[in-house]
Automatic annotation (TrEMBL):
InterPro entries: YjbR-like_sf (IPR038056), YjbR/MT2646/Rv2570-like (IPR058532)
GO MF term list: DNA binding
The organism's taxonomic lineage, starting at the top: Bacteria, Bacillati, Actinomycetota, Actinomycetes, Kitasatosporales
Bilayer-spanning residue ranges: none
Keyword DNA-binding listed: yes
Keywords for the protein's UniProt record, in alphabetical order: DNA-binding
Protein name: MmcQ/YjbR family DNA-binding protein
Keyword DNA-binding included in the entry's annotation: yes
Length: 126
């Protein structure tokens, strides 16, 4: 099933935002899009070809942000044990899915958890 236009727009905004962060690069391990900084993934973007529901997976150490993300419709701790480390998968096609702005805030939070201090300083200087 092809993703909805709304979900796809959100996904594109989030992807663009993530790749605009200092030192961010996109790679395609396991055939899905991820944004990395310093060779470490800070957001799993999945696929946009409709083979799997659109969603983003972010690492949120902040308890409030983590709880908020988990309260999104259909959200769940990430699989493969990543949930224990604070990773949350947020689907974009559910009714009431978070707005792109909020998703971008979570992506930035995830980035700050993983990026080296010098790149965080560069981000703060913007």
């Amino acid at each position: 099933m092809a993703p909805t236009k709304t979900a796809l727009k959100k996904w594109e905004k989030v992807r663009e935002f993530a790749l605009g962060l200092p030192g961010a690069v996109e790679e395609f391990p396991w055939g899905e899009s991820v944004a990395k900084v310093n060779k470490k993934v800070f957001v799993f973007l999945g696929v946009d070809d409709g083979s799997y529901p659109l969603g983003v997976t972010v690492k949120l150490r902040d308890e409030v942000a983590h709880a908020h993300a988990l309260s999104s419709p259909g959200a769940e701790p990430a699989r493969y044990g990543l949930g224990k480390a604070g990773w949350v998968r947020v689907p974009l096609e559910e009714k009431g899915a978070p707005a792109a702005e909020l998703l971008c805030d979570w992506v930035e939070e995830s980035y700050r958890t993983i990026a080296p201090k010098r790149l965080i300083a560069e981000l703060d200087a913007r």
